[in-house]
Every structure is written in structure tokens, then in C-alpha cells.
Amino acid sequence: MQFGRSYEEFEVGATYKHWPGKTVTEFDDHMFCLLTMNHHPLHLDNHYAEETTQFGKNVVVGNYVYSILLGMSVPDVSGKAIANLEVESLRHVAPTFHGDTLYGETRVLDKWESTSKDDRGVVHVETVGYNQDGKVVCLFRRKVMVPKDSYLQQRGGEQPGRPVPQPDKNWPGPDAQE
Question: Which top-level group of life is the source organism from (predicted)?
Fold first, then answer.
């Protein structure tokens, strides 16, 4: 299973469709609001939303929608990232409601080699999030510093820092005879 990409693996114009989608529950939305201290009644008070908003129901807090889509993109885009450099734009273009399922895809807009270190580069990507009906709800562009293959090889390859399981009384090791 792939987890992120090295600089050489990114191709300008490529689109990565993130899988699986995520159905947003009322619990998810309320927990995120409470954890981040966003107590706006649009997100937490069903009666308020029914009586005073154009939607007539709670709207999922935008930062949660963004966080889901950003997280979805990690295995395809930033799983090997050295640094997330910038979120240059973030637009919520339609509401997300409890029970909606979010899907996302990311397109590579550009890439360039680092001018200060030859073992890394920067990729410029745009992520589009949409619901189960294909309605686009969120768009954002960001720049991510990613390693080149040489950086990864110097630090242990595809899964740097991964320990090796040590045989003991509970597990004799992969080569033990049964």
C-alpha cells in the first residue's frame, strides 16, 4: 500500500482520487465543534437551524469538512511530506449536512525542485471535495515539500523508522520451525 509519494512520482496534471469516502455523522460534527470550541448554533442547535437558517437544518462546520478532505489526501499526496508549506486558498462553496458522504480528489498543478536542498521538491496541488451527489462543497490549494528518492534512501527507504519485530517467548520469529 502506498503512503504518499516522492517528488519523482508526482506528475503535473495527474489526479489522485481518494478512497474511501467518509459519511459525516451528527456525532462527528458535534464532537469536532466541541473539541475546537466552535459553539455556533448553526452546527449544534437543531431548533435554531430549523427556525432561523435558509437550510432548515444543521450545517457541518467547515473546518471539519476541510480536515476530512485533507486527511483523505494524505495517502496519495502528503504521506511522505517533509513539510506542509502553505494553504494558499480554501473555499467552502456549498454546505455539508449530517449524513452526507464526502469524497475527494487532488490534481497536481505544478512541481519544482528545491533551490536550497537537492534532496527535495515542492508540489502544488488542488483538492476538490464533493458529496454523494457529486456536488462540490470545498476546494483548496496547497504547497507541500516532499522528499526525492535520494532523501528516502538515506533515511531507510519506503518506511523509514519502522522497527523490526523481535522474537521472544510469545513469538519465536519468522524462521522458527513449528
Answer: Bacteria
Query: Would you state the CATH architecture of domain 7-154?
Result: Roll (3.10)
Within a 10 A sphere around the Cβ of 85, how many other Cβ atoms?
Answer: 14
Q: How far apart are CA 35 and CA 95, in angstroms?
A: 21
pTM of the predicted protein model: 0.89
Q: What average pLDDT score do residues 141-161 get?
A: 88
* C-beta separation of 122 from 115 below 8 A: no
> What residue segments make up the domains of the chain, in order of their start?
7-154
Helix (H) or strand (E) holding 66: helix 62-73
- pLDDT tens digits for range 98-130: 999 999 999 999 999 999 999 999 999 999 999
Separation of alpha carbons 111 and 114, rounded Å = 10
